[in-house]
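A reminder from the course coordinator: this example appears on the midterm review sheet, so study it carefully.

Given structure:
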């Protein structure tokens, strides 16, 4: 079973195109889990209007922010394979099948990611993202590359094996990017697969959550310190759990 986890907030302008591109690739037994973070536009009405049993909509009683909103969506997913989805992109045809085949071909992998094309608010081509290169040969070189910003990961491209949730969730306090957190944990504990090709069109517009401007060095260093501390703590917890089972 496949679960697509989507975090929404005032996404009415673009969400229909994204949902259409997802539903076309889902089987009847699959699900689109949507967690809405207090939308005040027509986002919920559009989703409910589909009348599709595969769409499960959950409305947060309080604002969670995008990281916790994705966390909640994933915690509600039932699938063995979990895709993450932004509310304003468009998936290319065959995306699900291609990524599942890649994961099946790499049974140790906990996460599959890809490159993507860019489009503007009107859906017109706006460039391409091809910075996700081959995975590093050694596990800790891969982790170091993520910390250094040399291996950029975007959650909107992710396919995650359900097994990874027991390692990745809950997301530690202070983590500002679920994308980097999942990539770090998956790289450290199982492995990732980087697809060089395109599996979606990522929309760039004024309301994007992803920051476009380069941040100050100290801000980046503080963020990386939080990630490092959280990763060490999580790996230690996993190790203690495994020892306890022996």
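Designed residues:
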């Amino acid at each position: 079973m496949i679960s697509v986890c989507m975090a929404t907030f005032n996404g009415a302008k673009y969400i229909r195109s994204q949902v259409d591109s997802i539903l076309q690739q889902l089987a009847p037994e699959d699900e689109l889990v949507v967690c809405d973070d207090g939308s005040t536009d027509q986002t919920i009405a559009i989703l409910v209007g589909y009348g599709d049993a595969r769409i499960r909509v959950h409305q947060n009683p309080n604002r969670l922010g995008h990281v916790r909103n994705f966390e909640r969506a994933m915690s509600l997913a039932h699938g063995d394979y979990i895709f993450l989805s932004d509310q304003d992109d468009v998936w290319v045809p065959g995306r699900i099948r291609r990524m599942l085949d890649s994961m099946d071909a790499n049974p140790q992998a906990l996460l599959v990611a890809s490159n993507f094309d860019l489009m503007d608010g009107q859906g017109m081509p706006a460039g391409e993202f091809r910075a996700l290169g081959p995975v590093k040969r050694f596990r800790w070189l891969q982790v170091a590359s993520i910390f250094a910003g040399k291996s950029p990961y975007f959650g909107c491209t992710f396919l995650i094996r359900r097994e990874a949730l027991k390692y990745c969730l809950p997301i530690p306090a202070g983590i500002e990017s679920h994308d980097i957190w999942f990539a770090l944990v998956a790289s450290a504990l199982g492995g990732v697969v980087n697809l060089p090709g395109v599996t979606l069109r990522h929309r760039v517009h004024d309301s994007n959550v992803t920051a476009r401007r380069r941040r100050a060095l100290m801000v980046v260093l503080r963020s990386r310190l939080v990630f490092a501390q959280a990763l060490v703590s999580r790996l230690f917890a996993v190790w203690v759990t495994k020892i306890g089972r022996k």
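The chain has one domain: 2-245. The two ends are 31 Å apart (CA to CA).
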